[in-house]
Amino acid sequence: MALKHVNAVIVGSGAGGGIVAKELAEAGFSVVLLERGKWFTPFDDRKDDLRNQRTCVLGNSFGPDSRSPRVYVDGSGHEQVVDPRHWAYSNNAACVGGGTLSYGAMAWRFMEDDFRLRSKYGAVPGSTLDDWPITYSDLEPYYEKAEWEIGVSGDDSGNIFRAPRRKPLPMPPLPPNRDFQILEPAAKRLGLHPFHIPMLRNSVPYNGRGACMRCRWCVGHACEVDAKCGTQNTAIPRAIQTGNCELRTECIAKEILTNALGRATAVAYFDSDGRLQEQSCDLVVASCSAVESPRLLLNSKSRMFPNGLGNRYDWVGRNLQGHAYTGAAGLFEEETYDDLGPGASIAICDFNHNNPGFVAGGLLANEFLRSPYQVVTGISGEGIPRWGAAHKDFMRRYFRRNMTVMGPMQEMPVFDSRVQVDPKVKDAWGIPVARISGRHHQNDLLGTNFMTEKAVSWLKEAGAIQTIPFKWTFLGIPSGGQHQAGTCRMGNDPKTSVVDKYCRVHDMENVYVIDGSVHPNNGGFNPVLTIMAVAYHASENLVKTWKGIYGRG
Amino acid sequence: MPPSSHLNRRAFLQAALAAAAAAGSNVACSRNRSPWRFFSLDEARALAAVADQIIPPDQDPGASWAGVVNYIDRQLIGPYENLQDTYRRGLAGIDESSRQLYGKLFADLASEKQEDLLHRFEDGKVPGSTWNQLSPKSFFALLVDHTMQGFYGDPRHGGNRDRIGWKMLNLPYPPVRGRIRPDQFKPRSG
Question: With an 8 Å Cβ cutoff, are A213 and B181 in contact?
Fold first, then answer.
């Protein structure tokens, strides 16, 4: 039996797709929201320190599983099929809410300069660096909307580098933890400008849900008291409440089907019983993250689009970026561990721009609470005993006396850092899998060296008796990670981008990509609030310019 | 240390298998006499000795008391199934190297000699034909990593007995403040 025709099919229910679903459903569109994972409740998180979305040595709690492999090609051309729990997989959770169910929930606005890096710094050799087709002030009202509708706590008034905002954050920050109390005066002594990190987390009751209970199971886990705000407990329930949105879980999108006129007509997907279905629709939104969205476009081949949708100029899947994370750990005489989650509390944006000798930069913040195993793996290197009696003494002495300061260095987009579909390897549903390859740009190394130094000096000022800088060794390997972005770039020129400034695929009338894929660059910040703001911005335009149902053919 | 329920289980299984053999059953051939899911008795003995060098007992219990062998054994028929061959060859290789250097199995060496041999593994300098195909350095790194998981990781996976890895760090239990429902899980059989 054919499925009932709808206005819009949205593939992926993460930060982007969840918001598009709500905006379209509220505007009266009939919407089918396809999600490859399940809808988890807070009770489904098992508080397991070896099996979650942050530490997945035994698997990850919210998927995907080994039915969805990827191919990873390192800098020397060696390729391997990787399972989702392998670090090279660039795993994002596959569930309703996507990464927003289990993320750390930092809620950053990019800075004004992040939208015009090319104008500010000029062309960067070896990079496809470009300005965004929209500015910070275009997005400002939508950042605000995300902060108030999804819910953000924090206080960035101490951040003199922040872009102007019209409204303050809706919730105050959580009371400072020990890290904050030690790092704040140290930063001020260094002439830096520390402040409370904005977080998509209830610090007070908000939106009908309670406040954070400050447990140690935060990043990588679902919130047990539902105080962490993601699309799964905000936008998606509201979309469903309209009566216009149907959420279908455990559905694996295969391809976007097009007709002879080059219009998308339906999405073919495998439902939860593995049956191939075709959902006909007037428009399609791909919101599957920066690895899976290009995979879906590239797998949607037809006579009119032999190289996949939006790929006339071979830009789909290009410029894969994540973040060049760097920083340092410090060991202290005094106890720093206070068991107050989420842990990450203080940040500085003094090094996001205008640094000597390289382009852009990134924020620095303290790390989330760590489990003992995370401390073993996270604090390692020269002078740290790996095993034996000395290791045990080290853990007894320093598990409660260490801090880590780190941050996401803005990566330079590289044309050959990319997602393709693999010619041979297929997933359990017979769909060609994503193939990730390429290298980082030299600028990433310069920037991380600089930021590592800054992290070390901050920790030393705070009283660290020993510092252990991260050794950043990713130069020769592909980008990606949970902050993946850039693969369906937004731009005005169809020859050097995939979507327009409202996220519509250039040569398609009714196909949109709305997720981190559209970011021309990914800021020196965790990208989720920008993904949400772009989703609000693009959805509003889509609703406004929608001309009703076209003839179906 | 109090006698562990695990050893009781092991003793019980051994007795049961011996009884089965005595009754003329051909189910229990000598290779299958191990109470472990994956390891043979010799492998488990070697691994326990290695783990106790990686996290040795002192004022707090060591890795083998904490059930690290049980943890790894269980994962090898689960998420680490792909590492079965590596473990089989690697643990035999440790005994091979030990025999060539000292004429004894690794588990029978004095503690200082065990430690010394593991430092050689860490440096990648050990004799034995096993190590032509398998890197001693990366096998040792794997053992260190898995021992850490078994000692500090959640007890539900078969290690960290009595939450000793957390108690040692003065990390309170239950680890989840305000937990409404206790975590329930079925022990895996096998």
Answer: no
What DSSP assignment string belongs to A79-145? Answer: EEEE-TTSGGG-----BTTGGGGTS--B-PPPPGGGG-HHHHH---TT------SS-HHHHHHHHHH
Q: Which amino acid is at A321?
A: Q
Residues of B in contact with A216 (CB under 8 A): 175-176
Domain residue spans in chain A?
6-545
* CATH architecture observed for domain A6-545: 3-Layer(bba) Sandwich (3.50)
The per-residue pLDDT for A391 is: 98
The yes-or-no verdict on residue A280 having pLDDT over 70 is yes
A268 C-beta neighbours (distance < 10 Å), count: 17
Dig out the tokens for B67 from the structure: 């059930």
Q: At A195, list the tokens.
A: 């402040």
Return the closest-CA partner of residue A527 out of A54, A146, A153, A222.
A146
The pLDDT, as a whole number, for residue A549 is 60
Note the pLDDT tens digit of each residue in A428-486: 999 999 999 999 999 999 999 999 999 999 999 999 999 999 988 888 899 999 999 99
Alpha helices in B110-163 (DSSP H): 111-123, 136-152
Instruction: Say which of A213, A371, A391 has its CB closest to residue B178.
Output: A213
With beta carbons under 8 A apart, name residues in chain A contacting B175: 47, 216-217
ipTM of the complex: 0.94
- A198-228: string of b/e by CB count within 10 Å (b at 16+)? bbbbbbeebbebebbebbbbbbbbbbbebbb
Task: To the nearest 10°, report the CA torsion of A292, A503, A442, A446.
Answer: -110
Annotate A487-519 with DSSP letters as a single string.
TT-B-S-TTS-SB-TTSBBTT-SSEEE-SGGG-
Query: What digits encode the pLDDT tens for the residues A83-108?
Result: 999 999 999 999 999 999 999 999 99
Residue of A339, A392, A398 for testing the chain B interface, max B β-carbons within 10 Å: A392
Show me where the domains of chain B are located: 1-35, 36-167
Q: Take residue A183 and report the two structure tokens written for it.
A: 């790092």
- Is B152 in contact with B61 (CB distance < 8 Å)? no
Alpha-carbon distance values, A454 to A162, A192, A449 (Å): 19, 11, 9
